Structures are given as C-alpha cells and as structure tokens.
Amino acid sequence: MKINVYGTESFCTWVIREPVEIDTDNYPELEGMSEDEAKEYIRENASEMAPVSDWAESLMDECLQSDVRREKINEEGSDIIFDGE
C-alpha cells in the first residue's frame, strides 16, 4: 500500500497600516455627530465615503492602500493530511 502524506502550515496575519487623517469638516455626513458616533459611521460606511487623496476611490480604499506600519503573524499551525482530505 502507498499513501501520499502532505504537510500543511497555516497562519493568521494581522496587518496594521499607516493612518489616514480626515478632517471631519470635509465630511458633511459627519456633521453634528459625537466622536464615537462618527467613528461608528466611518466603520460602517468607509467604502462609500470620499477619500482624502485624489488617487483613491473611497476612504476604505485609501486606508487599505496605506503603507504597512506593523504586521503580526499568529495562530500558526501545522498538520498532516492525506489524499482526499
């Protein structure tokens, strides 16, 4: 009998990017909100909000294209698998 044995590795990567500073005065949709309310709104709507820079399509796009500040790999794992798994 012959059995194919494979080694696997898995990683969870957490990337923190450089911040994008916004001036809330340039975002009428944030007018009258507390800081906590504005943060929650941004969290839920960043992909529809205008970017700070001309090159990005949205605030979310700009945030995801910023330089990497820190990268952490955790939850590393390894295992053995066989054909059909």
Protein topology:
Elements: E1 5-17, H1 35-45, H2 59-65, E2 68-82
Antiparallel strand pairs: 1-2
What does this protein look like?
With about 80 residues, the protein is of the alpha+beta class. It has one domain (about 5-80). Helix content is about 20%, strand content about 35%. It contains 2 helices and 2 strands, in the order E-H-H-E. Strands 1-2 form a two-stranded antiparallel ribbon. The mean pLDDT is about 95.
How large a portion of the residues is in β-strands, by DSSP E?
25-35%
Mean pLDDT: 93
Number of helices: 2
Order of helices and strands: EHHE
> Which strands sit side by side, in order, in the main sheet?
1-2
How many individual β-strands?
Answer: 2
Biggest pleated sheet? 2 strands, antiparallel
Overview features:
85 residues; alpha+beta; two-stranded antiparallel ribbon; elongated
Task: Describe the structure concisely.
With 85 residues, the protein is of the alpha+beta class. It has two helices and two strands. It has a two-stranded antiparallel sheet.
